[in-house]
């Protein structure tokens, strides 16, 4: 096993402010950034705050920015950096800092609660639901989400624009609306909720200008923009501008 000393800069501070601190930390073969942060805690900075849980890329807890790029620390191998490269670790920028690398992501839970849940079809009991495999596969991709909120952190609509946060649900939750909108058994429309229209009117879909930064950082490689947001935009536009769709929806509602 080979090891070397890496130069790390880690943001230390709290809601009042903070700065980058320099550390020299041992790195061994096969280690990831989270290993180094843990070694830092164990050897030099016992009060360093960091959130993590699974160390397997599945809990979504260890999100941070490594050399400016939003990443899961447990899935970022040290081998992607050269040995003389400084590795800078900072908290996610879009959410308020609690302390050091830990941010307050509660905005995301507020946004989650604002999306009306699946509406079961009438007259079909749980266990009797039947869906075509193609419909199952379409939404299965979105179910891979581990709620790391890296996409929410990256989207430029809110990254440096706190003022947009109240009106914009962000890619993760617009994707949830898209998933429900594609669900063949979701009966929300029978209760007057057209999900694509609501995404536009109530969840800020119009703020998204398809930059695809959310898709680029998703550790689950979910095609958020191509498979969720663009189809949702198309359906919202259909409902708004296609007179036949509009007429059909009026007749169905009677
Ligand atoms: Fe994370 Fe991807 Fe889910 Fe966004 S969609 S929260 S980036 S797993
Ligand atoms: Fe933001 Fe993703 Fe749209 S980064 S602008 S939600 S494509
Ligand atoms: Fe669970 Fe990194 S510790 S995703």
UniProtKB/TrEMBL annotation:
Domain 2Fe-2S ferredoxin-type: residue ranges: 6-93
Annotated keywords: 2Fe-2S, 4Fe-4S, Iron, Iron-sulfur, Metal-binding, Oxidoreductase
Pfam families assigned: Fer2_3, Fer4_8
Pathway: Carbohydrate metabolism; tricarboxylic acid cycle
InterPro entries xrefs: 2Fe-2S_ferredoxin-like_sf, 2Fe-2S_ferredoxin-type, 2Fe2S_fd_BS, 4Fe4S_Fe-S-bd, Beta-grasp_dom_sf, Helical_ferredxn, SDH/FRD_Iron-Sulfur, Succ_DH/fum_Rdtase_Fe-S
Cofactor dependency: [3Fe-4S] cluster; [2Fe-2S] cluster; [4Fe-4S] cluster
Family membership: Belongs to the succinate dehydrogenase/fumarate reductase iron-sulfur protein family.
Protein name, UniProt field: Succinate dehydrogenase/fumarate reductase iron-sulfur subunit
């Amino acid at each position: 096993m080979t090891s070397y000393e890496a130069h790390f800069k880690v943001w230390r501070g709290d809601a009042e402010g903070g700065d980058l601190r320099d550390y020299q930390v041992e790195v061994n073969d096969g280690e990831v950034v989270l290993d180094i942060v843990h070694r830092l805690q164990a050897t030099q900075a016992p009060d360093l705050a960091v959130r993590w849980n699974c160390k397997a890329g599945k809990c979504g807890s260890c999100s941070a920015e490594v050399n400016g790029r939003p990443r899961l620390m447990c899935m970022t191998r040290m081998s992607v950096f050269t040995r003389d490269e400084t590795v800078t670790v900072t908290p996610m920028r879009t959410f308020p800092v609690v302390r050091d690398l830990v941010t307050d992501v509660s905005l995301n839970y507020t946004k989650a609660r604002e999306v009306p849940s699946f509406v079961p079809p009438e007259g079909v009991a749980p266990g009797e639901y039947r869906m075509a495999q193609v419909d199952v596969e379409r939404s299965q991709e979105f179910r891979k989400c581990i709620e790391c909120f890296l996409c929410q952190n990256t989207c430029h609509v809110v990254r440096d624009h706190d003022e947009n946060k109240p009106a914009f649900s962000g890619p993760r939750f617009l994707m949830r609306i898209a998933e429900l909108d594609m669900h063949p058994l979701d009966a929300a429309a029978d209760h007057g909720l057209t999900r694509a229209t609501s995404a536009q009117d109530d969840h800020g879909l119009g703020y998204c200008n398809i930059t695809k930064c959310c898709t680029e950082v998703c550790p689950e490689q979910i095609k958020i923009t191509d498979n969720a947001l663009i189809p949702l935009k198309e359906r919202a536009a259909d409902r708004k501008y296609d007179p036949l769709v509009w007429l059909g929806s009026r007749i169905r509602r009677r």
